[in-house]
């Protein structure tokens, strides 16, 4: 599992400081930056599988980051006082010093549609036979198209990259590999997978005011189910301005993020698509998926208790105002937005998406197809051994330097406010789901599910049937390519 260690001393320090302050205040005599500038780092037990030092003569190692969210994993400088910025800088500086290279990152933010900036930039370079990018972090919708168009290197064939190491995400490897051929993955080299993880935020003060069951205990007991989630949502409703109608000015059990519906499917242990016998198979429509959607729709479409804010406004400021104004007991959202509420007056906590039933074996947390980015190596390379060495070192030192700061300081110390939220992060980060059907936009059922929520549509069977031929046609194309690609890479 990707995150398995809680750093007890650092955690205790953070919790003590936060509990002494109350609603997000810092202890007397310190500042927020003072409390978080000395992160505790983990000593990685596994040895780095590439040389720890090499001399590449000051050559430039070019990294492209492109997608809906252009993550800044390699662009920070030593002037930043923020702990995460400092950690990213120290990771880059360590690799530059050890290998005598200069790491440069180019960021391109734009719509990842399958033909977005990541796809266009890499495909243009590769088709021209140009080794422009040594490494790329490309959004899910684009990197998948790059993969089945034959524009990426098999990561398992890159000398120096060892995807079995703990600094690579094994769940991603299991979910995205085709007969051992792996064109994109993720791990400690980037925080984008963490930021893209689906979570539920809850307002602790409203939970106390309405005398509701402790959701943390429900998670611990394995009783945090979709039915219980719906039940709690339907206990909170209040016409705050007494105008006789429920709208953005009132209080609801649930603030609905329309994208959350794709996470509901995964939370029930289901997948849009899975890899079986070396082929991607459509697995979305079944009794369990239908049951999960029906339960979710029963609350998400009930305008007395749920508010779908994307129908009434747009932009993060709108969402921020609703959440900070205590307009919702729960909010289905994603991890990347959590740090923006570190100054929120009301206390809040984090939860994984609920199980469908108590008998389900585990909680499952979607890594969003829209916000995520994946590591890949463009097919044309000047020095593939150098690329593998530097990539592996960046991932290794990501685990050693960056992850402890991200996990313990940036989240536990600054954003979340209780010990239980740290436990929830453990559950969330260790239950990642990488649904290949979403990334490859099969159907595209991910968008169809979102359209259903926007329209308050409950007829999943009809939506599924309308797109099944399109989905199967695309799967046929992709599987045929991978059949040839696997054979090619296995013989090289």
How many domains? The number is 2
Remind me, CATH topology of the largest domain? D-Maltodextrin-Binding Protein, domain 2
- Strand coverage percent: 5-15%
Name the assembly state: single chain
- The Cα radius of gyration reads 23 Å
What separation lies between the terminal Cα atoms? 31 Å
CATH superfamily of the largest domain: Periplasmic binding protein-like II
Instruction: Please bin the fraction of helical residues.
Output: 40-55%
Overall SS class: alpha/beta
Mean pLDDT: 87
Spatial shape: globular
Task: Identify the CATH class of the largest domain.
Answer: Alpha Beta
Q: Under the CATH scheme, which architecture of the largest domain would be assigned? A: 3-Layer(aba) Sandwich
Major sheet description? 6 strands, mixed
Low-confidence stretches: 1-43
Overall description:
With 492 residues, the chain is of the alpha/beta class. The chain has 2 domains: 201 residues, D-Maltodextrin-Binding Protein, domain 2, CATH 3.40.190; 232 residues, Periplasmic binding protein-like II (D-Maltodextrin-Binding Protein, domain 2, 3-Layer(aba) Sandwich), CATH 3.40.190. The chain contains 18 helices and 14 strands. Strands 4, 5, 6, 9, 10 and 11 form a 6-stranded mixed β-sheet that branches. It has a 4-stranded mixed β-sheet with strand order 2-1-3-13, with helices on both faces. A two-stranded antiparallel sheet has the order 7-8. Helix 3 links the parallel strand 1 and strand 2. Helix 14 runs antiparallel to helix 15. The radius of gyration is 23 Å and the shape is globular.
């Amino acid at each position: 599992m990707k995150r398995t260690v809680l750093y007890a001393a650092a955690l205790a320090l953070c919790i003590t400081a936060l509990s002494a302050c109350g609603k997000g205040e810092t202890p007397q005599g310190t500042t927020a930056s003072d409390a978080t500038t000395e992160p505790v780092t983990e000593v990685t037990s596994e040895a780095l599988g590439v040389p720890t030092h090499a001399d590449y003569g000051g050559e430039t190692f070019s990294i492209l980051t492109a997608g809906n969210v252009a993550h800044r994993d390699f662009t920070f400088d030593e002037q930043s006082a923020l702990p995460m910025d400092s950690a990213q800088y120290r990771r880059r500086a360590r690799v530059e010093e050890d290998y005598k290279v200069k790491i440069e990152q180019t960021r391109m933010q734009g719509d990842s549609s399958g033909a977005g900036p990541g796809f266009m930039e890499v495909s243009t370079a590769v088709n021209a036979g140009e080794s422009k990018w040594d490494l790329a972090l490309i959004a899910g919708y684009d990197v998948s198209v790059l993969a089945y168009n034959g524009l990426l290197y098999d990561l398992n064939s890159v000398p120096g990259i060892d995807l079995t190491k703990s600094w690579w995400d094994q769940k991603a490897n299991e979910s995205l590999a085709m007969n051992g051929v792996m064109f994109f993955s993720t791990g400690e080299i980037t925080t984008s997978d963490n930021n893209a993880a689906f979570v539920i935020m809850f307002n602790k003060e409203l939970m106390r005011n309405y005398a509701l069951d402790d959701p943390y205990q429900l998670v611990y007991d394995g009783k945090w189910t979709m039915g219980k989630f719906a039940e709690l949502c339907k206990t909170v409703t209040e016409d705050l301005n007494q105008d006789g109608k429920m709208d953005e000015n009132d209080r609801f059990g649930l603030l609905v993020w329309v994208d959350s519906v794709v996470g509901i499917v995964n939370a029930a242990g289901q997948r849009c698509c899975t890899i079986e016998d070396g082929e991607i198979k459509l697995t979305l429509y079944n009794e369990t998926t239908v049951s999960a959607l029906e339960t979710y729709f029963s609350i998400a479409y009930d305008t007395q208790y749920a508010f779908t804010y994307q129908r009434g406004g747009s932009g993060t400021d709108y969402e921020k105002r609703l959440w900070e104004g205590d307009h919702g007991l729960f909010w289905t959202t994603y991890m990347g937005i959590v740090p923006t509420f570190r100054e929120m007056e009301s206390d809040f906590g984090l939860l994984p998406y609920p199980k469908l039933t108590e008998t389900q074996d585990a909680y499952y947390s979607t890594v969003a197809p829209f916000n995520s980015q994946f590591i890949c190596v463009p097919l044309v390379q000047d020095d593939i051994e150098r690329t593998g060495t530097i990539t592996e070192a960046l991932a290794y030192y990501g685990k050693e330097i960056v992850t402890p700061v991200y996990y313990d300081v940036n989240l536990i110390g600054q954003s979340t406010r209780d010990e239980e939220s740290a436990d929830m992060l453990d559950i969330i980060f260790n239950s990642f789901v990488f649904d290949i059907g979403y990334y490859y936009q099969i159907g595209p059922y991910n968008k169809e599910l979102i359209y259903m929520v926007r329209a308050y549509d409950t007829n999943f069977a009809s939506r599924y049937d309308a797109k099944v031929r399109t989905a199967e046609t695309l799967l046929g194309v992709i599987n045929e390519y991978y059949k040839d690609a696997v054979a090619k890479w296995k013989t090289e």
